[in-house]
Amino acid sequence: FTTATSTADADGSGNSINSADLTGTSGWQSGKSVTVDGTSIALAKFGEAVAGTPLRPPRSLLVSDASGRVAGDEVTTAGYWVRHLREPIRFDAAVRTLLAHRVTTLVELGPGSLLPPAVGTAEEAGQRLHGVATLSGRGPGGHRAMLTALGRAWVNGVSVDWTSVNPRPDRPAK
Asked: What is each CA distance from 44 to 20, 38, 99, 121, 155, in whole angstroms?
């Protein structure tokens, strides 16, 4: 097979775009060119990293904001996570699915920027949704932020197995 590559600053952004001629490559038509940008390369590397990570199907309700539906075994594949990064999310559909399953507390694994739209969607549907962010963007993160988020979820009625959180109650959590 033959390859010829070229690099161009097609959009003037300073980002290079690589084009490769994959003539004779298995599975490709003769003379077909593929454009590979930095995002595609990063996604491929991400996919390789995920493929090397053991993933298990969800044991509790997990709604995919990639599809807006309840997720299952598909979340155990690298392809799912690459698509999740590449394609638009369907957050509104995901929130509506959560509401249909009578979820009342939404925990965002992040700073909470998605919680106001989620609460707004719930209000439009005539339901109440409590939002809990795990990272506030202010103050310390890590373990303390997770304990704070668990406390907020618990105050909103979520059952928390505190023994799992702190298996030695004689030693205070930090």
From this structure: 16, 10, 34, 34, 42
* 156 closest CA partner among 96, 91, 103, 85: 103
One pLDDT digit (tens) per residue for the chain, 174 residues: 333 333 343 444 444 444 443 333 334 344 444 455 677 888 889 999 999 999 999 998 999 989 999 999 999 999 999 998 888 988 889 888 999 999 888 887 777 677 778 888 888 888 888 888 777 666 666 778 888 888 888 988 888 888 888 777 776 656
Whole-model pTM: value is 0.62
> 154-163 — which CB contacts under 8 Å span 24+ positions?
156/104, 156/105, 156/130, 156/132, 157/104, 157/105, 157/130, 158/105
